Amino acid sequence: MQSRKVILSGMQPTGGLHIGHLTGALKNWVELQNEYECYFTIVDLHAITIRQEPANLRRWTLDLAATFLACGIDPTRSHIFVQSHVPEHTQLAWVLNCFTGMGECSRMTQFKDKSQKYPENVNVGLFAYPILMAADILLYQADLVPVGADQKQHLELTRDLAQRFNSLYSETFKIPEPYIPKVGAKIMNLQNPTKKMSKSDENQSGVLFLVDEDNQIANKIKRAVTDSGAEIVFREDKPGISNLITLYHIATGKQIEEIENEFAGKGYGEFKKAVADAVVEFLRPFKVRYREIRANEEYLKLIIREGAEQARRVANKTLAKVYRKIGFVAL
Ligand code: TYM
Fold it and tell me: Which of 54, 93, 108, 145 could cysteine-pair with 135, CB 3.0–4.6 Å?
């Protein structure tokens, strides 16, 4: 019997998740776990490329485990683990560091954006961030990596590094494919629809957090910046309305064209109210499950302990293969 294809994806424990994390990544993780052997990692090592308060990092790590479960990741089928619990990630990252050009890392838009945003802390870890991400993926011989559009460039680097290593040392790594959703891969800030929604945005009224209260969600949507004109259509010159159409699509499952027809001739006010109601309803069951699961820390720790054990079994094999090929002496 051929074994199942593999998925690896990750998320940073750097605070409350927003709806973009759900549409860009988590939603697909849940859908794909039936078909694939899945590894979902909470990337705490990546998180410290930005300064973190230790107590927050600890809390957010378990928050994220609870979020995965509340969204529908099934721990009996998928493996949820914390990156720092699997030391092979940093070990492989070191090796890959030695196969990555400085120019390749300095071209990364995320590095450029973050070094502009935090000029007081442009550290080497931030620079090497995508190499650690490549290690995350390659250790598990992942076939597919479900992520939002902002991670595409990191995936390309991962593929380049894997190909480079394979051609120097013979076939070692599977070349992974990105899996970026057609709709929802880049949710925009509600207050500035030309900018990606991001949890560290100064303007939090443009960010829909998964755990926001119902009235906060509704108010944020009702106050969302819209475009000139009155038509409710999905078009490049209407980033505000297109973003809201995307959210309505995610919340209701209705197709874009169907949504445009539904609101033809109707005003922005009516449309926003419908989006607000739909998103509130869509998130409600998640919030109930989240509260329940988050309250049980013992259970969360059990899940991540088991996840790390399984992850290490796989990661260890790939790392041993890499070490052998580059000429490290095995004992
Ligand atoms: P993070 O935590 O910043 O983002 C997690 C996932 O959410 C997606 N995302 C969005 N999707 C749509 N619209 C948005 N506004 C939006 N904001 C975030 C991201 O694309 C991502 O898929 N570097 C990764 C973490 C990582 C990883 C990995 C991912 C580390 N190792 C290995 C895959 C495989 C990141 O950006 O996390």
Answer: 93
